[in-house]
Specification:
Blueprint lengths: L4 E6 L3 H12 L4 E7 L2 H11 L3 E5 L7 H11 L4 E6 L4 H10 L3 E4 L3 H13 L4 E2 L5 H8 L1 H6 L4 H4 L3 H11 L4 H8 L3 H15 L4 H10 L11
Parallel strand pairs: 1-2, 1-3, 3-4, 4-5, 5-6
Helix pairs in contact: 1-5, 2-3, 9-11, 9-12, 10-11
């Protein structure tokens, strides 16, 4: 039998971590060597333990799992990371893979998909939870094409941070949620929002959504605002 793949679990819910560990305890190919309850601890333990695989919660109390993924991949290029999330929105999936994750599983199907995903990414493959609709998968595959459509002069006047905030606003997130996602204050989000609306000559949230949809930044069918 080959050497077991070592696993670090980063999730802020103790009972959920215990559930994941229980699943992997019954799988001969993996060994959980550590766990962390927040992003900072996750990065620290990853540096110390150098796991083969990381199971990463997208929503951590101190920072986004996407940012933690980016940090871990910058110091441990061989470590493979699977993202666990309550969300199946295209933006989250796209950002997770861009940050360096190679697997994405929604939490509700973690018990059925955990081992399958870890086996796939440990072999250098990509894994996307089949419970995520084909429509989202199609949007993910076409995301680079959508990026190429962005030629609007107004959009080009936005700073990279303003473009990021605009996407999240168009996706229906509140200023508080965006602040948490980007680790900035709600007041800063509101300042960015004001600048965005002024630069693009928009006057309502719905106008912002329509603008983003026209540029191909969001899929209106997936928007839940």
């Amino acid at each position: 039998m080959g050497k077991k793949k070592t696993v670090l679990i980063v999730d802020d819910h103790p009972l959920f971590r215990e559930g994941l560990k229980s699943i992997l305890a019954n799988c001969s190919g993996f060994e959980v060597i550590g766990e962390a309850a927040n992003g900072r601890e996750g990065v620290r333990k990853a540096k110390k333990l150098k796991p083969d695989l990381v199971v990463m919660d997208l929503s951590l109390p101190d920072q986004s799992g996407i940012d933690v993924t980016r940090k871990i991949r910058s110091i441990l290029s061989e470590t493979r990371i699977m993202m666990l999330s309550m969300h199946s929105k295209i933006d989250y999936i796209t950002e997770a893979f861009r940050a360096g994750a190679t697997g994405y599983v929604v939490k509700e199907s973690a018990s059925e998909r955990l081992v399958e995903c870890l086996e796939a990414i440990s072999k250098g493959e990509y894994f996307l939870d089949t419970s995520i609709s084909h429509k989202v998968v199609k949007s993910l595959m076409e995301s680079d094409k959508k990026e190429a459509k962005i030629t609007d002069a107004g959009y080009d006047t936005l700073t990279p941070r303003e473009q990021q905030v605009m996407r999240l606003l168009a996706d229906g997130l509140s200023a508080k949620d965006i602040a948490k996602e980007l680790f900035i204050s709600p007041k800063t989000v509101e300042n960015h929002r004001t600048n965005i609306m002024n630069k693009l000559d928009l006057h309502s949230a719905m106008e912002l959504v329509r603008y983003a949809a026209r540029l191909g930044l969001i899929d209106v069918d997936l928007w839940k605002g």
